[in-house]
Amino acid sequence: MRAAGEATRQRILAEARREFAEHGLAGARINRIATNARASKERLYAYFATKDELFDAVCAGVIRSTAEEAQLSADDVPGFAGRLFDIYIDDPDIVRLYDRISMDGKPDFRSRGSDVYGTKTAELRRGQRTGAIDPAWDPAALLSMILGLVRTMASEHHVLIPGTPGRPTPEERRAAVIQATRKLIAPHG
Predict the structure, then answer these.
(1) Cα Dmax for the chain
(2) Which one-letter DSSP state was computed for residue 167?
(3) Which helix (H) or strand (E) holds 60?
(4) DSSP letter (8 states) at residue 40
(5) CA–CA distance, 67 with 121 (Å, rounded to integer)
(6) Position 82 pLDDT exceeds 70
(7) Among 46, 18, 16, 21, residue whose Cα is nearest residue 31
(8) Which entry of 3, 32, 64, 160 is 20 to 30 Å from 128 by CA?
(9) From CA 111, how far away is CA 14, in angstroms rounded?
(10) Are 184 and 145 in contact (CB under 8 A)?
(11) What is the DSSP letter of 157?
(12) Average of per-residue pLDDT across 104-129
């Protein structure tokens, strides 16, 4: 693909990411995405045949880039949770997109992310074998709990109403995520 074509494709993906995060799959509008990306609707459809295909491409890109940036290591699972929290705080659209994947993503799409999650669960399993992580947990369930904890604590709308006295700061929420993850994985006995 020529450089200009790739630049257009990347603008479309960036605008689609914003659109899907805000409106979900059903509410997203191809016309709005194309206009904001400074591309024609025809050009958009040349890259992505359907809105579902565009949604899948956006979500797959977010899953992969987040996994690469946060890097889960069995030797530092609490650090992973902290890095993931930081990513979510820096870009709240990522949390909204994960919510949209849960609501709008088709089962076949969610299964395509299994290689990313499979790598993470394999790493947790490795930590269980070395004794760094409690072996009583199913690695997939443990990963789900950690991801859910981070998403919940990073989402402003989940943590009390803004302006509520005693509301934890982002720094306090990050520290809580790390501490909770540390306790969750701690080997017992």
Answers:
(1) 62
(2) P
(3) helix 51-70
(4) -
(5) 12
(6) yes
(7) 16
(8) 64
(9) 23
(10) yes
(11) G
(12) 79
